[in-house]
């Protein structure tokens, strides 16, 4: 049973560029959430996708956008990259109707903006 | 406001017990998670508390007091592999299922 997978593992971009990160949820999961984790900090919620729509959003600017596909996989897009966007981006998946609402995290994408 | 506080770092000896406290003040509350995160890796689920009281899972136990906005994670018989960051996270109430609000994490260092 494959867990949550993310690609790429590492990415280096220049300020002002755009980036797309990808996530495949754990088998059987239908909900995908994205988090940003700065060094030494806890993950910060960016947004959540369910049934191909953004259902909740954290305190992140519109430069951060996403998409969920019919197979439940998801993309995170960040436009006009800033140095402060350098972080570990984590994808987490869950099953909407599961009582515990436990989220399974992927290994993350380490984004460095120079 | 939203505030989740936990100590920055704790050091303990192999075989000992360590208790990591977490206090929270959030606009809503439905449950509290504890995750373990080794350096450079994804957070992994340890426990989920909804009701007041103690939940025990092997060497790890988690306690919740909803009225006090307080939780702790108890790690017993510490092993070197327990050296990691421990994250406390709250799920708000209402329609915010799955939106985890994390504390900054507590770095536990286990020494021989």
What does this molecule look like?
- The complex is a heterodimer of chains A (114) and B (112).
- With 114 residues, chain A is mostly beta strands.
- Chain A is 0% helix and 50% strand.
- Chain A is built from no helices and 11 strands.
- Chain A has strands at residues 5-7, 10-13, 19-24, 31-37, 44-50, 53-57, 64-68, 74-78, 87-94, 104-105, 109-113.
- In chain A, the strands form 2 sheets. In chain A, strands 2, 4, 5, 6, 9, 10 and 11 form a 7-stranded mixed sheet that branches. Chain A has a 4-stranded antiparallel sheet with strand order 1-3-8-7, with no helix packed on it.
- In chain A, strand 5 (44-50) and strand 6 form a beta hairpin.
- Chain A starts with a strand and ends with a strand.
- Chain B is mostly beta strands and 112 residues long.
- Chain B has strands spanning 3-5, 9-13, 18-25, 31-37, 44-49, 53-57, 60-65, 70-75, 84-91, 101-102, 106-111.
- In chain B, strands 2, 4, 5, 9, 10 and 11 form a 6-stranded mixed sheet that branches.
- Chain B is globular, with a radius of gyration of 14 Å.
- Helix content of chain B is 0%, strand content 55%.
- The termini of chain B are far apart.
- Chain B contains no helices and 11 strands.
- The A-B interface holds A 4, 31, 33, 35, 40-45, 48, 56, 58, 90, 92, 94, 96, 100-108 and B 4, 31, 33, 35, 41-45, 48, 87, 89, 91, 95-105.
């Amino acid at each position: 049973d494959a867990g949550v997978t993310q690609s790429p593992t590492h990415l280096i971009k220049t300020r002002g560029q755009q980036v797309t990160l990808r996530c495949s949820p754990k088998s059987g999961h239908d909900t995908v959430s994205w988090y940003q984790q700065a060094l030494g900090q806890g993950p910060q919620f960016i947004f959540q996708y369910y049934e191909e729509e953004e259902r909740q959003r954290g305190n992140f600017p519109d430069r951060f956008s996403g998409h969920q596909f019919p197979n439940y996989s998801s993309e995170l897009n960040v436009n006009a990259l800033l140095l402060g966007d350098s972080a570990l981006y984590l994808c987490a998946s869950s099953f909407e109707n599961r009582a515990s609402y436990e989220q399974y995290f992927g290994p993350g994408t380490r984004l460095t903006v120079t | 406001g939203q505030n989740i506080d936990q100590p920055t770092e704790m050091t303990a000896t192999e075989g000992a017990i360590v208790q990591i406290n977490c206090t929270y003040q959030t606009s809503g509350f439905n449950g509290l998670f504890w995750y373990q995160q080794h350096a450079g890796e994804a957070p992994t689920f340890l426990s989920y508390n909804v009701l007041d009281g103690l939940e025990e899972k092997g060497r790890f136990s988690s306690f919740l007091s909803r009225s006090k906005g307080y939780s702790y994670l108890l790690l017993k018989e510490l092993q070197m592999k327990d050296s990691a960051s421990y994250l406390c996270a709250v799920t708000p109430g209402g329609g915010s299922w799955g939106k985890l609000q994390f504390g900054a994490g507590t770095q536990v260092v286990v020494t021989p």
